[in-house]
Amino acid sequence: MKKIDLNENRLLTPATLKKYLEENDLFYLVKTIGTSVQGRSIYSAHIGTGPKKVLMWSQMHGNESTTTKSLIDFWAYLNTPEASYLLSSCTFYMIPQLNPDGSHEYTRQNANNIDLNRDAVELSQPESQLLRTVFDEFSPDYCFNLHGQRTIFSAGDTHIPATVSFLAPSADAERSITSARKDAMRLIVAANNTIQEFIPEAVGRYDDGFNINCVGDYFTSKNTPTILFEAGHYKNDYGRTVARQMIFKSIISMCEVIASDTLKSFPIDSYFDIPENYKNLRDVELCNVNTSLSSNSNLLQTFIFQFKEEKFEDHVKFIPQIDSFSKELKGLQKIDFQEHKVFKDLIFESEEDLISNLTKTISLLNFHQIP
Ligand SMILES: [Zn+2]
Predict the structure, then answer these.
(1) Does position 71 have pLDDT exceeding 70, yes or no?
(2) Which whole number is the average pLDDT over 233-256?
(3) Highest-scoring range by mean pLDDT, 216-225, 232-241, 358-367
(4) With contact defined as beta carbons under 8 Å apart, do 119 and 134 qualify?
(5) Where are the domains of the chain?
(6) Whole-angstrom Cα distance, residue 320 to residue 336?
(7) How far, in Å, is the centroid of ligand 1 from the Cα of 100?
(8) How many Å lie between the centroid of ligand 1 and the Cα of residue 287?
(9) Which of 54, 66, 196, 341 lies 20 to 30 Å from 162 when distance is taken between CA atoms?
(10) Is 70 exceeded by the pLDDT of residue 3?
(11) With contact defined as beta carbons under 8 Å apart, do 271 and 202 qualify?
(12) pLDDT, position 371
């Protein structure tokens, strides 16, 4: 029987994760540490014997599965001989799916429709309470908060998709550079140095506006260096296999710095050299589309589409939705209607006709093979 391949499918349900861990002989490490609103198990793995404690969790937003895959890759790496020095210097506490109900349904929120990353103070949800209990009892020296981001983000004011973004969250409204924040920045600099070689200019930095309800900001305010990781888009890679690898490499490089006590050799100035994220991108741009909507006949127009991601049976469907056009925006895929025989002579009579036909047209397009 074919083993589960986590690579392409963005839907990563708790059932699939369990099966994958079992098939890859990793499930023996798992402990059940709590249950979700709908009674699904929340797992952890506790590996290593070293004095430096690192807490990592992923998929607190259920539709952000890529970094769970990276975390599982790291978990598997820890079981190889090369990782033995990490295990003697550090103890890793990993929670691969903090929000199993959202992971089952492919939703950001948990089953009570609460964003767990806005529940750090109120702790209204069992999943948020569990993370806080682990934080208090394990008392980590570092936290890795693993997420995924939409395709709209560019690294800086460019049209290069941010395949990975990082943030050293603020600890207060003044965005002070506290010692915890400094250490988070240094780790980000180390990871950025590593992955720039593979995805040059495709690393971004998130806005550091303070929100105490976000887990990263809350933990940083308690003086624990916390790093936000965001797995993003790479050209034509809607399965996010590139981001998965880059996050995996980033985790290893940060853990090596922690294990070897070389944190201070990474200057925080280099953190601010990482470009900030802009929202300059959308999934598809159709240009030179022939419409008779205006009084000028044969007016060629540009349309911008963004995919809405929805669970459909055992996978995620990308449903194109028309977005408002502005000059700053650029499509990750651009299709010039005048360059393709099948589109060239299409003329749309009304706005409804246009929207439904363009939506159908995009749905039919294979991302890579446009006639
Ligand atoms: Zn998220």
Answers:
(1) yes
(2) 96
(3) 216-225
(4) no
(5) 14-278, 281-364
(6) 17
(7) 14
(8) 32
(9) 54
(10) no
(11) no
(12) 31
- Ligand 1 mean position to 10 CA, how many Å? 14
Residue 366 has pLDDT above 60, yes or no: no
Write down the H helix ranges in the chain: 14-23, 66-77, 84-89, 100-105, 126-138, 179-195, 215-221, 241-260, 269-273, 341-344, 351-364
Task: Using the mean position of ligand 1's atoms as its centre, give its distance from the Cα of residue 358 in Å.
Answer: 30
Cα-to-centroid distance, 70 and ligand 1 (Å): 15
- Tell me what pLDDT residue 268 has: 98
The per-residue pLDDT of the chain, averaged, comes to 92
State the distance from the centre of ligand 1 to the C-alpha of 148, rounded, in angstroms.
5
Class of domain 14-278: alpha beta
Token pair 């990490």: residue: 86
For residue 351, the CA-to-ligand 1 centroid distance in Å is 35
Give the mean pLDDT of 126-152.
98
pLDDT of 341 reads: 76
Residue 202 tokens, joined: 């495709």
* Two tokens, residue 283: 């999934």
